[in-house]
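Revision sheet: structure tokens.
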Amino acid sequence: MSVTLLTALLLQAIAIGLLRRRLGRLWLRRPVTLLVVTSTVYQGISPVLLTLPSVRVWDNFRIGVRQSFVDDATLILSAGMLAFTIAYLLTRPERVSCSAGETDIRVAVKALDWRFLALACAPLAVLTYQGKGYNNGTLTIGAGAPLASSLASTFFVILVALAALGFVLKHGPQWFLPTLLAQSLLLAAAGERTPVVVDGITLIVLLCHAGYRPSGRQMQAATGLTLIAVLAITGVRAERGRSLFYNNSGLSARVTALGGGLTALGSSSGADGPGLIAQAAVRLDGVDFAGAILQSVNFGRPRLSAGEVPESLLLAVPSAIWLSKLDHQLNPVAMEISDLGLQNINFLPGLAGMYVGFLSPLWLILFLALLGAVCGRAERVLFRRWTPARMVLLAGAVTAALHYEQGLPGMLTVLRSAVVIMLAVKVTGALQSRKDEPCRPRTMASPELSLARLPGDPRQGGPELSRCSG
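Predicted:
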């Protein structure tokens, strides 16, 4: 392990320590904190595991990239996330916090009715299990994708989490584990591991903000359930590949395959393939993309124009609004792969590493510091009040933070779905409030009642005042 990598790990430890010291024991309930913790998984834990020769041999993402450039990239990204953390803490996020009262919970149960949310999830789940929705192995988002696929890819995962939240709020915290089990099973049947983990964490964070913090035993059981679901998906992929999840196989066939996935995992992770640790380390490697870019720049390739950075954020604009969106090259990763001569592979750029090919190390650190300040201000606004609409936004913020590997445009796209659901919740709540408002009869004021009555006015029945006579 090089001195450069050790320095990077020290910077990551400082960022985590600052967050824990400033925010206290509830620090993991905040989206920005979860984002920084997630970054240490991609930029700290995975690079450490990949220093082992038995693990590094399976990493296809670093083919042709020198280890020194990877270490330099790790240091730059770690410094950027430390700057992000410091700028976030300078906004004093600990000064704003919200808690839910009994009235707030009753309003949330009504606004986030799990029956309506489950009803909205049902067609998306059916399309997914038919191979036409979420994770269908093709382009599922964009102007060229079917409407059903786009809707399933955008809303399926977050609607499942919100439906689970509404159910637990309605029936009580004792239903947390059964609800998490059902949620994990529905998401695991889609064939992706990340949504299982993301929705599990999102549900726990939302329940904590609602005052329904799971107990220690429930947290241990939840961790075990999530791990089993992830291992089952891994086993199915090792034995049968991804084709089962891309075709019209149905829910029952997928659940049966998941049941046998754990058994298949033991037989497939032998000497002929990478073990579980190697698979996880390669899957979570978030510095190889930046390392490859640094090597390419060092060999004489010029960086791309920094003006492409704000333009890349237009990826979050829905294709239904911007019909000519696909006519523009907005994907920064695709531009960096093409112009900098990188291997055409499914890199995980991450929030900190996505713009290494556009910005110098100093400007990248300053950009991340600015982004941290913006996130701090946004989080303060989010936590000013506890409302159902804000809880939907919190679910979107947590989900976006846990999708750190997708970079800023991908995270904004994830957050976009929560904004749409939040608007629907606000409109529905406003209509429901008008419906529940009691109807008061309208009365016409009499002209006589509107006149001021003076003492002694004969119309009041009192004594009449006498006139003075001369």
